[in-house]
């Protein structure tokens, strides 16, 4: 790393420490009730006697939750994103913290409207009045990477204009470099961290946040997701106006819906909350398994609800910068694992983990099954509606650590999205049974993928190519026969060569054995010539033949030939 890069990391680390001290984040550890006595002695002493305790305490009007939210805002987009993820996990956080962190979704401090206008004009090469009939100076929402303004096109279309924050690239680059430094240190000095692949996780996050900075990438994702759900009652995705979209400016159709976090307004409108929660689960599984193209940043700030028909509510998704995809093998193993969990088939779960490579191949499947059963059975004694899938996954992964289970970077986005969906669903409808809602969908998907219908569909997909090749079938068969004859001839030649090589190896082995025998004999004779009884007659006369025989025997025994 360059000297400038190292200086940048140190400067950023120093800023993080200053912000943490200014907001007295050390006190949050005590508020959260964490077992501080388990920390190393040096860490406990630092928390108790660090110089920041000499500074004035924050205002009493600032609750611990508010201090955490303000600190994350000051720290920048990487940390704001972390707070957004935390805000969806109300089952892991006290309500006050979850409520406060929710403001990170779309209430980050905005930059000036004049800066937005200047960025848009430079990107489009047009003045604001040439591009838009109206442009709102005050942002509608402001997030960690960009902010959004209302506007109207000259054809009367209501749109929103998303603008990347000025100078954000440099801040993110410094944060990512710092995270790489921390991840590298963890891998070097903490053996347990190697299983978690922190450097690979940072690399994956770097790609993710890089996608957020390229609005052309987000526009393409938005168009694809919109096509996937055309005519669907589950999800609506706004239209992209490509003529006004650039790398740092995105213009989208303006949608009108209720923010999903506004539970009270949804209830006042008479929204069917159970259907809404269950449709969220169905939307997620449709994206993952049917389309293999899923919105991987489904925090409350990016999801709205269309309640024009409260008995039949649907979702509206925005901010499609982060999209996840799985390989065919990952899809297959994930689906089979989920179904095995639903059916409490622990042996199948253990076997699939080994077969997929998620745990080492040397793992004893029966022992792994026994451990999984011990973890899952107490959990499954509860009604399924009371089981948190998030808690279940955490418990399972902690248990699998003893079998050297490694983090699967390709599944990190999926796991995060699934936890977000469950967190949102439980907010909407606390009795949501994720297992009951997902199991029928997974069973249908597996039946379509592995049953007769799947075989017929694959045949139908290949039919045009087969029909195209049909006139050439006789020639192909003739060439296939000729090729089979050549393969047989080659196989016979290879067998003959193998027989010759085997004979040569046997001859070499016999020769080596003979050399060893002669060598041992030469050493023995040489030794006898030097024996006291023989050498006493004429020691000088015996020395030369004894030495020659010894060297000859050593060459036969230890030489290369």
Task: Summarize the structure in words.
- This protein is of the alpha+beta class.
- Among the domains are: 3-104, no CATH class; 260-450, no CATH class; 473-558.
- It has 24 helices and eleven strands.
- Strands 1, 2, 3, 4 and 6 form a five-stranded antiparallel beta sheet that branches. It has a four-stranded mixed beta sheet with strand order 5-10-9-7.
- Strand 9 and strand 10 form a beta hairpin.
- Helix 9 runs antiparallel to helix 11 (198-213) and helix 15 (328-342) packs across helix 20.
- The protein is globular, with a radius of gyration of 35 Å.
- It starts with a helix and ends with a helix.
- The model has no long low-confidence stretch (mean pLDDT 77).
Shape: globular
Q: What's the pLDDT, averaged over the residues?
A: 77
Q: Which percent range describes the beta-strand content?
A: 5-15%
Gap from first CA to last CA:
51 Å
Number of E-state strands: 11
The major pleated sheet works out as:
5 strands, antiparallel
User: Helical residue percent?
Assistant: 55-70%
Structural class: alpha+beta
Number of helices: 24
Low-confidence stretches: none
Global Rg? 35 Å
